[in-house]
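Human:
I keep going back and forth on a fold encoding question. Comparing notes only helps if you start from a blank page. Show me how you would write down a chain together with its backbone fold. Write it directly below this note and I will take it from there.

Assistant:
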Amino acid sequence: MAAPHTTPFISQNLFIYIAISLLLPMADEGAAKVYEDIRNFPTDEKRLTREYHLRQGALRGLIVKPGKQYDLQPVEMFLGIPYAAAPVGHLRFMPPVSAPPWSGVKMATHFAPVCPQTLPTIKKGNPPSLGRQHYLHRLKPFLTQESEDCLYLNIYVPYRGEESLLLF
């Protein structure tokens, strides 16, 4: 009696690994394009959200309608909202302290600096790393502004016209 034909375990895993590494850049392409659109988004009066009042002060963000190719609903986007005081000086290595209040209306329309970090090095030409290389290449522009003062939130809320709520 002949033994049943089996595919070696290593070749199955290798096939899956290569397939994922080839498909990952395509799956991530849509998200990267949305973020590129956000970075270049004009901030005129028609696209600003209504004013929200928080403990720290008033806040306005952007109303974003992703392109039709994404099949996504509009969102209210609030970028760079401080959630704690900057961890510098006497606050370094201490528990977070509430963000100080601001006067006037804070325009939450731009990404805040990111925390200092080092991007991982990836060996060129390694097939499983090609998807990760592509991803890091697109991510790099968002990591150009680094600062220890990096305790900020980006908040995305479904846009529902005047009924939209931003709760803190």
In short: The first helix runs from residue 9 to 39. The chain is about 25% helix and 15% strand. Confidence is low (pLDDT under 50) at residues 5-10, 13-17, 19-32.
